[in-house]
Amino acid sequence: MKSTSYDYGECVICNTPMQEKLIKQDFWIRDELIIIEDIPAGVCPQCGEKVVKAEVGRWVAELIKYSDRIAKAPRVSVPAIKFDA
Ligand SMILES: [Zn+2]
Question: Where residue 39 sits, what CATH number does that domain have?
Fold first, then answer.
């Protein structure tokens, strides 16, 4: 999906104009952490609030349904820390 210039309006939290960026989003699916990269989203430069267009949200929901696509995706390792307070 190409990134197009789209007016994300202003941040609902601090009213700063949102800027379009490609973001990473993580999802837990059946105990597996999945990261989707390059999602076009509006990001608030002030507070970091993120919004995605409805169509982008739908496509993300579709992407994470394809278990064979997930199975073939490259693996990355992430730090895992135990909460041992
Ligand atoms: Zn904000």
Answer: 3.10.20
Cα 20 to ligand 1 centre (Å): 13
For residue 30, give its domain range: 19-71
- Cα–Cα distance measured from residue 19 to residue 16, given in angstroms and rounded to the nearest whole number: 9
* Cβ–Cβ < 8 Å for 19, 45: yes
**CA 62 / ligand 1 centre spacing (Å):** 28
**How many domains does the chain divide into?**
1
Residue 42 lies in a domain: yes
pLDDT of 34-85, one tens digit each? Answer: 999 999 999 999 999 999 999 999 999 999 998 899 999 999 998 999 999 8
